[in-house]
Amino acid sequence: MVRVPASSDEHDHVESDFRRSISAFFLQSRYRSGQQPQVLVEAVHRVQNRPQWRRYCLLRDELRLRERAPDDAAAMRRFERERLYHGTDEATADKIAHNNFNRSFCGKNATRLGHGSYFALHAGYSLRYAPPDGRGVRRIYACRIYVTYKDSQAYPEYLISFRLDK
């Protein structure tokens, strides 16, 4: 993983999407439970796992060809969500970066819908699956996802490390 410089446009984009996603979650009336926590982003790391990225792209392109979709951005948006979130603990965060999501390790947090890796539209939902470490830092992946029946159909693009200050 490579730490994204805090002064870069890339960092600003990832952090602003993350903050917007958390705010959207807490603004939904059924999740209101008092004051929204203050998010203090400590770091954004870009996952650079070339074999994992190639598998992800290969499966995505196979799906596009099978569906006879054109090779353009509009068609890809039909199959791919650029940002879904996955909360994790400190020990598992590194394993995901190196080995991707692995359904055989699931069940630690929730398997209400069956064994699998779960992703949320709003980062706020993933907070409950991102326990703080000894320093109070939590971890959520911002992921690229498409119809997922295989572990490599999800790519953990960014690891966001942050604290909550109520």
TrEMBL record:
GO terms for biological process: negative regulation of gene expression; protein poly-ADP-ribosylation. Gene3D superfamilies: 3.90.228.10. Its EC number is 2.4.2.-. Keywords: Glycosyltransferase, NAD, Nucleus, Transferase. One of its GO terms (molecular function) is NAD+ poly-ADP-ribosyltransferase activity. Residues 1-166 form the PARP catalytic domain. It is found in: Nucleus. One of its GO terms (cellular component) is cytoplasm. PANTHER family: PARP/ZINC FINGER CCCH TYPE DOMAIN CONTAINING PROTEIN, POLY [ADP-RIBOSE] POLYMERASE. This is Poly [ADP-ribose] polymerase. It comes from Emiliania huxleyi (strain CCMP1516).
